[in-house]
Amino acid sequence: MTHRLHFTLNGQAISHPCDPDCRVIDLLREQMGLTGTKEGCGTGECGACTILVDGTPKLACLMVAAQLDGKSVETVESLEKSEEGRKILQAFVEHGAVQCGFCTPGMEMASLAMLRSGRPLDRMAIRSGLSGNLCRCTGYVKIVDAVAQACKGTDR
Ligand code: FES
Ligand code: FES
Questions:
Q1: Which residues form the pocket of ligand 2, taking CB atoms under 6 Å from any ligand atom?
Q2: Model confidence pTM above 0.85
Q3: Which of 41, 45, 76, 103 to mutate to test the pocket of ligand 2 (most atoms within 8 A of CB)?
Q4: How far apart are CA 72 and CA 145, in angstroms?
Q5: Cα 50 to ligand 1 centroid, rounded to whole Å
Q6: For each of the chain's 156 residues, which pLDDT tens digit applies?
C-alpha cells in the first residue's frame, strides 16, 4: 500500500508517496538521500539514528513513515543551517569529539535538543542528555567538552 506522506524535512515541505510502514531510517537514507543519519543497532539501543521530530529526539530505526505525517523532522544535515547547529559542529571539531564518526550525527542531534531545551546544562545534565547515545571510540569526555562549549553563551 502506498501512502502520500506530508511532512517538513529540514525546513522544506515534503509530499512523498511511500509505504506507511517503511522505517524512517530507510525513508531518510534510501528515499530522501540523507545518509547523515546512521543505523547502528537497528533496535533502539545505540542512538546513532537520532533525529528530531517536532523538536524532540526520536530514534529513526524505531519509527515508521506514517508517524511523520504533519510533523517537522530535522536531521544532521540541517545543522549547518542554524547558528546553534553550527556551534555544535564547530565544538565537536575543536574538541576532537569525533573518531570513527558513526555516533556523531546522533550525538549532535541530541545535543541540539539540549541546547534548545532551556534547561541548565552542567556536565551532569549533558551526560544525562546523551545517555541514549553510545560511542565506542571517544570515552565521552571530549563529546561532553564539545557540548559544554556549544552551550556557552547560548541564550537560555
Ligand atoms: S540504529 Fe537506532 S538506536 Fe541504534
Ligand atoms: S566516534 Fe566512533 S562510535 Fe563514537
A1: 98-103, 135-138
A2: yes
A3: 103
A4: 29
A5: 7
A6: 788 999 999 999 999 999 999 999 999 999 999 999 999 999 999 999 999 999 999 999 999 999 999 999 999 999 999 999 999 999 999 999 999 999 999 999 999 999 998 788 999 999 999 999 999 999 999 999 999 999 885 544
Give me the residue label for grid cell 509530499.
15
Helix, strand, coil share (%) of the chain residues, nearest 5: 40, 15, 45
How far CA 59 is from CA of 6, 67, 145, in Å, comes to 19, 12, 24
Task: With beta carbons less than 8 A apart as the criterion, state whether 71 and 7 touch.
Answer: yes
DSSP-derived letter for residue 30 is I
What size, in residues, is the chain?
156
